[in-house]
Amino acid sequence: NAGVTQTPKFQVLKTGQSMTLQCAQDMNHNSMYWYRQDPGMGLRLIYYSASEGTTDKGEVPNGYNVSRLNKREFSLRLESAAPSQTSVYFCASKEAQGSPLHFGNGTRLTVT
Amino acid sequence: GENVEQHPSTLSVQEGDSAVIKCTYSDSASNYFPWYKQELGKRPQLIIDIRSNVGEKKDQRIAVTLNKTAKHFSLHITETQPEDSAVYFCAASNNNAGNMLTFGGGTRLMVKP
Predict the structure, then answer these.
(1) What string of DSSP letters covers B68-106?
(2) Nearest residue of A to residue B6 by CA position?
(3) A69: helix, coil or strand?
(4) Which of B51, B98, B105 sits opposite A98 (nearest CB)?
(5) In principle, which of A92, B48, B66, B82 could form an S-S bond with B73, CB 3.0–4.6 Å?
(6) Number of helical (H) and strand (E) elements in chain B, helices listed first
(7) Residues paired with A56 in a beta bridge
(8) What distance in Å separates the CA atoms of residue B74 and residue A86, rounded to the nearest whole number?
(9) Rounded Cα gap, residues A95 and B107, in angstroms
(10) pLDDT tens figures, B34-91
């Protein structure tokens, strides 16, 4: 039972390159989320998927797209990376309303 | 939408002292309030949570209090130890369609031995 698994752990991109961050959970959770964490800014929601087949924008969606591939997997795509997207990205999942959020180990992304 | 404010942003205490971190929220419909601890370079992990039908909850050295009228909740850590040093985040959510959690900005707690 791995919980929430994110890949890769580290990534360096040049401005304009694209990449996809992968996330999978094995807890049969309905809802999945992508957050970014910048120094001194806490955790900000990028996109979320309340259930399989649905996705919605969070607080800071610009420059990102997501895909809820199935109940287990929720990917985050950067089409044209910018230095402002340098951050630590956390995927998370939860079972239902009022239940705890479970985080993956994060992806540290640097855009030069 | 929900707005969660957290104070202080940094807190330094002597080992054995108590630490208190406070949060306020804006949406009166919020009914779930978790607290997360994040050690350096690691993921946030849930340490305690409280629901709106409860005013206080304790788990060993950690307690959380909730004042729904004033829309604020607090984390209390007693007999602090060096391993309590971390960043702590409060959060709030309601029964919205996305089950979204809104986080406070975090408090860096340093426990000096």
Answers:
(1) TTTTEEEEEE-S--GGG-EEEEEEEB-S-TT---EE---
(2) A42
(3) coil
(4) B51
(5) B66
(6) 0, 11
(7) A48
(8) 32
(9) 27
(10) 999 999 999 999 999 998 888 999 999 999 999 999 999 999 999 999 999 999 999 9
